[in-house]
Design brief:
Cytochrome p450; Farnesoate epoxidase; binds protoporphyrin IX containing FE; monooxygenase; microsome; single chain
């Protein structure tokens, strides 16, 4: 009896103390759902909606454009308006990344990566180096990129045509892990070593794509649970996809190791100017022995893994979104094609054509708005305590963007659920700058996406050359049930695999390939 009384009394006291501290803390932190011991606000999230980003969006409509929420044991703030994203991502308070779980493991528990490295000495130095070397022999050098991009897009189109002409009714499968991703992965390899794989059946290339696919699929399984309780990976990693993630990271490293050893064997890096990113990195390893923790063989390996994970799924998902949206909105597709026909004609499209192609630019922006791709951007971490709207955001808090709200706010975006590129164009037929600026798929500020230029240039070239050559039509199978436009949750959002009928444009009887 006494024991029971003791248990009840202790539990009651603990609850009372928790309630007191919760009441006082909730007055100082940003508004948000109540935070319980151990589970934080998980119950409110789960019971709001089974899809995490929709649940967060719904809750943010109750608690406002900066909402504090505890996911398990992790303190988070979700920012849900363009202005608050600009403040949190664009400023100086949140320039670190949380980097837990698989990210730490992937970087051998050292501060050597770009994507989740913290502190200016780690990511700042690395970013500076990447920007410098990409500006001379990499995707930030337009002339350098132009050649590589032309080669890859030409091969891509050739492959698409082979696939279409060998498929019944020219119906081609567009799968998340299919040829679109293979091509973007190949493009990335080319930007790192200056040379692409000759064909899409290359075993090493396919091995890398399979490893990347496995990584992203496994991340979907336990992404919220593992974020909420990072230590769970040690106990139940098998069930939350953690072990699969580790296996896929090993696959990505294996491919990267081979690229590095090929460049080492060639030995170009030993003499004169480097001709590709890996050579530039190898040269730096040789010359900066004292900085070995940053410029080491391990660091090169994880940097390449960063590029492959950050750059392939995002880019290919975006193109898959674009084709699906154009296929299901044939009038928009026709408008896009007509712009290309009038302004470019049958000649090969060049990057320089983009400025003249206003409707095309509007389509690209609208696909980003509609599809999100990076629905939470990439997480950040507060490096100090700071004040926002009169409340305190504590050092170490994880910051995430809720792009669903940013891109769907009805007073900014009329009919946000409708795919309408025209929303970006004014009466004079010009792009509305203020609207275009609100599309921020690459983040903002000091840690803005390093591959922004590569992604924008390649996205433009792939999309326009495809539309110049083909009309995308819904195959018969969709007459009753159109393909789903629902966004599937993951590190990046995607759509379900779909098929498209590729009808060759009549004006393209002459070759338009490069
Ligand atoms: C459609 C394509 C892409 C999208 C939507 C995208 C989006 C993003 C976002 C939202 C971030 C976080 C930015 C922030 O915190 O403010 C990021 C970071 C990054 N992205 Fe991309 N990305 C894309 C393509 C690429 C490509 C092709 C690469 C090339 C390798 C790349 C490499 C990186 C790297 C290295 C970072 C980390 C930068 C840092 O932490 O300093 N991304 N990306």
């Amino acid at each position: 009896m006494f024991l029971m009384f003791l248990v009840f009394a202790t539990t009651g006291c603990a609850l009372y103390l928790w309630l007191l501290s919760e009441l006082s803390e909730s007055k100082t932190r940003l508004p948000g759902p109540m935070q319980f011991p151990l589970v934080g606000s998980m119950i409110q999230v789960i019971t709001t909606h089974p899809v995490g980003f929709i649940a967060i969006d719904k809750l943010s409509q109750i608690y406002g454009d900066a909402m504090s929420i505890k996911l398990g044991i992790v303190d988070c703030v979700f920012v849900s308006s363009y202005e608050s994203v600009k403040y949190f991502y664009g400023g100086e308070n949140c320039v670190d990344r949380p980097g837990t779980g698989i990210w730490l493991e992937r970087q051998f528990y050292k501060k050597i990566r770009v994507l989740s490295a913290n502190g200016p000495s780690a990511w700042g130095e690395m970013r500076k180096f990447i920007t410098q070397s990409w500006s001379s022999c990499g995707p930030m050098n337009r002339d350098w990129l132009r050649g590589i991009l032309k080669e890859e897009v030409t091969s891509f189109l050739k492959y698409v045509e082979e696939l279409a002409s060998s498929s019944p009714g020219r119906v081609v499968p567009f799968k998340a892990s299919g040829f679109v991703k293979v091509s973007f992965t190949n493009l990335l390899t080319a930007t790192l070593v200056g040379k692409r794989h000759e064909n899409y059946g290359d075993k090493k290339l396919l091995g890398l794509v399979a490893a990347l696919d496995k990584f992203f699929r496994a991340s979907r399984i336990g992404i919220s649970v593992m974020t909420a309780y990072p230590w769970l990976r040690f106990l139940f990693g098998r069930y939350f996809g953690y072990h699969t993630q580790l296996e896929s990271v090993a696959g990505i490293h294996k491919y990267s190791k081979e690229l590095i050893s090929q460049r080492r064997k060639l030995g170009v890096y030993k003499n004169g100017e480097p001709t590709c990113f890996i050579d530039a990195f190898l040269q730096r390893i040789e010359s900066e022995k004292e900085n070995a923790h940053l410029f080491s063989n391990e660091a090169l390996l994880v940097t390449l893994a960063d590029f492959y994970t950050a750059g392939t799924e995002t880019s290919s998902n975006w193109l898959l979104f674009a084709i699906l949206l154009l296929m299901t909105h044939p009038e928009k597709q026709e408008k896009l094609y007509q712009e290309l026909r009038v302004k470019v004609g049958n000649r090969p499209i060049e990057l320089e054509d983009r400025n003249e192609l206003i409707y095309t630019q509007a389509v690209i922006l609208e696909v980003f708005r509609w599809g999100k791709v990076t629905v939470n951007l990439e997480s950040r971490q507060a490096i100090r305590d700071f004040e926002y709207n009169g409340r305190i955001v504590k050092k170490g808090t994880t910051i995430l963007a809720n792009m669903c709200r940013v891109y769907n706010t009805p007073n900014v975006w009329k009919d946000p659920q409708v795919f309408r590129p025209e929303r970006f164009i004014n009466e004079d037929g010009q792009l509305i700058k203020e609207k275009a600026e609100r599309i921020i798929p690459f983040g903002l500020g000091k840690r803005i996406c390093l591959g922004e230029m590569l992604a924008k240039d390649s996205g433009f070239m792939y999309l326009t050359t495809l539309v110049q050559k083909y009309r995308f039509e819904l195959p018969h199978e969709y007459l009753r049930n159109p393909p789903s436009l629902e966004l599937i949750e993951g590190i990046t959002t995607c759509v379900a695999d779909y098929n498209a009928k590729l009808v060759k444009r009549e004006t393209n009887t002459q070759t338009i390939c490069y």
